[in-house]
């Protein structure tokens, strides 16, 4: 027997000229025989296809996946699942040539479909058509992946922390958004385990429990590309399956040591950090020039503070290359470097950042 699906295509009977003969079953003269009888007599006993009267299909009530050929797959709408189920069980003898099949699903309810089937085929160059139907009953249940998700299944943990500091709430939230983006991308690529089982936030970061170790690697790579940082992996034995050890992976994700707004001393420069990802960018407060360097080379750096802690002081006067201000601590009048594009007026208040390397206007 063979299972086939082709576009429905009506074929005209193919006749071949031959001498007239008498059908041994009905006694009618015919110029064409099929298996030694006339086409009409052969057609009465011909069975073009076999199809069970009732079939059963399984669809995940949560994600819509269809259980097909011993595994869960995304197979489309319930109507498409009903047709695919009928097609899977449609049996056509190997002796039938030029087979054509047409299927038409009709919903009796959201869970029961009548699938009408039209089959055409040739036997000894004579075309026959037959039709029938089957009832497809759809059972809604949870697929393996959704069951795992509901049961708290996880293969790895992404530990989001920061290097030598506590990450801000904004940084943690940004990292969690990147986790969600990356997981969704991996799910669309076919990783059914690309989901977040649980998220726990702490004062020093967050732990994200994930269903897929493979997706976890992509998540960490995505975070590093956007926010910078490093990741190390460690493994813990979680049990056995089919005689093999099963391990869980811990991804120790460390965000960069510095964040936007930090002021640092690096290679005789005072830098206000604008971005600290794979590439570090900022402003050299000593001359207002742009600063950028690859993150891997941004080492031996001293943190001076953050611009959030800048102090306000009075602008006394503006000169060609400098400005006079009141020292925010001693209230003495001092001259400092004039920032590029500076346009504040004398008597106004401006923000300055005081360090052991000097005072800088922001």
UniProtKB/TrEMBL annotation:
Domain of life: Archaea
Domain Nmd3 N-terminal: 23-255
Region (Disordered): 1-20
Biased composition (Basic and acidic residues): 1-13
Pfam families the UniProt entry points to: NMD3
Chain coiled-coil ranges: none
Name recorded for this polypeptide: Nonsense-mediated mRNA decay protein 3
